[in-house]
């Protein structure tokens, strides 16, 4: 319970960062999805069962600031967390490129599900342009952040083990 | 290592089923009071933190701006004082004109212009998604803000509409959002072409105004205002400028690319029109012809 509470606080902090970053840097074109990065990394580290709960909470929190309590992000983020959980324990922790790759793919899946569930985009959007101009750059930004975060986590863990 | 077996699949399916059920309720606008209460609780807990962060950032920014540009500020103060004196003179002059205008209106039995009650608000948060263009402002139900109130900039450009209200904050759906639709009219005396303006969903792209009559007089450079044909927005608020006009629906109508005025600004402060629907109701009812036109416009805009 204590662990869930700690992670909840982290997620609230990440949401505040996600909401405020465009206020601090108004010219920013893409706002990184910090909550998604956290959920995917968590899924890779602890597996899908816990990650699904974090996905659900993260999605609910994000939807709160988009006018509905259970919006599109709640099921989407839960599903993405479940998928990301399959990577758990299937690679050596030294392989620093797998988690960013997971975040990259998770971003693409999340945004594609979002577009297919959003009525205003579903039939009128040019998916090729949206993927090229919005989804891929966002996925790239998210994966770069994920790489930095995972590297810090990995080296911190190693340093912690060495005492 | 996580092992995928029948149990995991069952848990996942159950989890997804519950969420999908709740999502279905939400999609069909079925009100679940507990969920609304939970949402409001979370929303009202987070927004004061956002407000605090914003205030702290503003103070830090203000401190450094003052520190590094003290000479510029002094010069600006001098200029503003000069400008203030000029404006005070102009106000006196305009007050005379206003009195004369009121007197003449009374003589001609013209209906009164409506003064909108405005409340200033600061943008404290942006959208957490690239697809939704929503901002959060630091005024809520405590300040008299309600759903569907129009929002404008200090320069009078249309920003959007209040979508959700918390105790001390509100969410505003921007004009650029893909779900946003507003009736527009060409601001030219010899052309009053009307159409529907749709959000593009992107800040770097212009909005599309379609359903313009095939023979309507609309050209590049025309200013587009809110038509006010519906009761959603007051008439005459500046929206943008026509950038390109082309035929639509195989020549049966026209559509235009509209460069929005708000795209050239950084939205830091906005104004909410608090009394628009009430004020619109206060206006003496126009004759039946105008009324039917307004009704048809409303159904079009919705």
UniProtKB/TrEMBL annotation, chain A:
<feature type="transmembrane region" description="Helical">
    <location>
        <begin position="7"/>
        <end position="28"/>
    </location>
</feature>
<dbReference type="Pfam" id="PF04093">
    <property type="entry name" value="MreD"/>
</dbReference>
<dbReference type="GO" id="GO:0005886">
    <property type="term" value="C:plasma membrane"/>
</dbReference>
<keyword id="KW-0472">Membrane</keyword>
<keyword id="KW-0812">Transmembrane</keyword>
<keyword id="KW-1133">Transmembrane helix</keyword>
<feature type="transmembrane region" description="Helical">
    <location>
        <begin position="34"/>
        <end position="57"/>
    </location>
</feature>
<keyword id="KW-0133">Cell shape</keyword>
<feature type="transmembrane region" description="Helical">
    <location>
        <begin position="69"/>
        <end position="91"/>
    </location>
</feature>
<dbReference type="InterPro" id="IPR007227">
    <property type="entry name" value="Cell_shape_determining_MreD"/>
</dbReference>
<dbReference type="GO" id="GO:0008360">
    <property type="term" value="P:regulation of cell shape"/>
</dbReference>
<keyword id="KW-1003">Cell membrane</keyword>
<comment type="similarity">
    <text>Belongs to the MreD family.</text>
</comment>
<protein>
    <submittedName>
        <fullName>Rod shape-determining protein MreD</fullName>
    </submittedName>
</protein>
<feature type="transmembrane region" description="Helical">
    <location>
        <begin position="97"/>
        <end position="117"/>
    </location>
</feature>
<feature type="transmembrane region" description="Helical">
    <location>
        <begin position="129"/>
        <end position="156"/>
    </location>
</feature>
Automatic annotation (TrEMBL), chain B:
<protein>
    <recommendedName>
        <fullName>Cell shape-determining protein MreC</fullName>
    </recommendedName>
</protein>
<keyword id="KW-0175">Coiled coil</keyword>
<feature type="region of interest" description="Disordered">
    <location>
        <begin position="281"/>
        <end position="302"/>
    </location>
</feature>
<dbReference type="InterPro" id="IPR042175">
    <property type="entry name" value="Cell/Rod_MreC_2"/>
</dbReference>
<dbReference type="Pfam" id="PF04085">
    <property type="entry name" value="MreC"/>
</dbReference>
<feature type="compositionally biased region" description="Polar residues">
    <location>
        <begin position="293"/>
        <end position="302"/>
    </location>
</feature>
<feature type="domain" description="Rod shape-determining protein MreC beta-barrel core">
    <location>
        <begin position="123"/>
        <end position="274"/>
    </location>
</feature>
<dbReference type="GO" id="GO:0008360">
    <property type="term" value="P:regulation of cell shape"/>
</dbReference>
<feature type="coiled-coil region">
    <location>
        <begin position="70"/>
        <end position="114"/>
    </location>
</feature>
<dbReference type="InterPro" id="IPR007221">
    <property type="entry name" value="MreC"/>
</dbReference>
<dbReference type="GO" id="GO:0005886">
    <property type="term" value="C:plasma membrane"/>
</dbReference>
<dbReference type="InterPro" id="IPR042177">
    <property type="entry name" value="Cell/Rod_1"/>
</dbReference>
<dbReference type="InterPro" id="IPR055342">
    <property type="entry name" value="MreC_beta-barrel_core"/>
</dbReference>
<comment type="function">
    <text>Involved in formation and maintenance of cell shape.</text>
</comment>
<keyword id="KW-0133">Cell shape</keyword>
<comment type="similarity">
    <text>Belongs to the MreC family.</text>
</comment>
């Amino acid at each position: 319970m204590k662990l869930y509470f700690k992670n909840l606080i982290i997620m609230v902090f990440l949401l505040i960062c996600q909401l405020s970053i465009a206020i601090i840097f108004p010219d920013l074109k893409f706002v990184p999805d910090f909550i998604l990065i956290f959920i995917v990394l968590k899924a890779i580290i602890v597996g899908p069962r816990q990650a699904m709960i974090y996905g659900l909470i993260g999605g609910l929190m994000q939807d709160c600031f988009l006018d509905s309590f259970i919006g599109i992000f709640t099921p989407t983020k839960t599903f993405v967390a479940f998928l990301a959980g399959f990577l758990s324990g299937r690679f050596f922790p030294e392989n620093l490129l797998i988690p960013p790759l997971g975040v990259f793919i998770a971003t693409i899946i999340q945004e594609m599900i979002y577009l297919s569930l959003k009525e205003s985009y579903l039939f009128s959007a040019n998916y090729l342009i949206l993927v090229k101009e919005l989804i891929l750059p966002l996925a790239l930004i998210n994966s770069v952040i994920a790489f930095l975060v995972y590297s810090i986590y990995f080296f911190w863990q190693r340093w912690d083990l060495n005492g | 290592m996580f092992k995928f077996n029948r149990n995991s699949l069952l848990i996942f399916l159950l989890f997804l089923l519950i969420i999908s059920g709740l999502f279905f309720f939400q999609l069909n606008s079925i009100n679940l009071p507990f969920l609304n209460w939970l949402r409001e609780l979370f929303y009202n807990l987070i927004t004061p933190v956002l407000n605090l962060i914003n205030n702290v950032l503003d103070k830090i920014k203000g401190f450094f701006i003052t520190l590094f540009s003290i000479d510029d500020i002094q010069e600006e103060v001098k200029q503003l004082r000069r400008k203030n004196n000029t404006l005070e003179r102009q106000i006196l002059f305009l007050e005379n004109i206003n009195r004369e205008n009121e007197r003449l209106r009374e003589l001609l039995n013209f209906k009164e212009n409506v003064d909108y009650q405005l409340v200033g608000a600061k943008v404290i948060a942006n959208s957490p998604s690239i697809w939704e263009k929503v901002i959060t402002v630091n005024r809520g139900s405590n300040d008299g803000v309600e759903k569907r109130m129009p929002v404008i900039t200090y320069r009078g450009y249309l920003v959007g509409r209040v979508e959700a209200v918390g105790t001390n904050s509100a969410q505003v759906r921007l004009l650029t959002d893909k779900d946003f639709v507003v009736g527009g009219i060409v601001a030219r005396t010899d052309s009053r072409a009307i159409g529907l303006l749709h959000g593009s969903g992107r800040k770097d792209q212009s909005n599309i105004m379609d359903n313009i009559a095939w023979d309507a007089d609309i050209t590049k450079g025309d200013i587009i205002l809110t038509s006010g044909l519906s009761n959603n927005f007051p008439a005459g608020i500046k929206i943008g400028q026509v950038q390109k006009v082309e035929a639509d629906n195989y020549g049966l109508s026209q559509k235009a690319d509209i460069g929005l005025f708000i795209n050239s600004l950084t939205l830091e402060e906005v104004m909410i029109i608090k009394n628009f629907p009430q004020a619109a109701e206060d206006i003496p009812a126009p004759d039946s012809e105008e009324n039917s036109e307004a009704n048809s416009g409303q159904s079009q805009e919705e």
